[in-house]
Model the fold of this input.
Amino acid sequence: MTANPSWDEITHQLFAGQTSYDRPDIVVCIFKMKKDQLIDDIFKHHIFGRAVAYVSVIEFQKCGLPHLHLLVILDNNSQLRSPADINSCISAQWPDSERHPLLFETVKHTMVHGPCENLNLSAPCMKNGLCTKGYPKAFQENTTTRSTNEDGFHCQTKNTQKIMEKKTMPKRVNHRMRH
Done:
């Protein structure tokens, strides 16, 4: 989770002419509140099943915003063991812009890499004409539980057209809207 300087909880606390960069105290306070809510959602509301432990690290990005890395250990009965389990709580697809306009805009503005490579050779991720983050990633028709790509990531479906035609979203969307 990364702090968003446009969160309403932050912008409503600023005086005229101020930006979130003028008030890191507010940014950190709101970030902690949202982090605590995420932990509550995971452990008390069981949004991923029964969680038994977690390890977290908060670091500050170059722009000064706090960023949370969170590893959650799930109970044996709640572990994600199949592609269907993974797809029940992780989506690498565009949300339906008509049914979930706020989620669509959030994903569009905060979770999409690029454009880079031929579309923007001067993007910050570019070095020697290639994206240093390895984008664009190869298209995967289905989620797999064993990595077949060289960078060690699980391959997940990214078929935007199919999700738009189905007009469906994963069951666990509500927590994405809050955090």
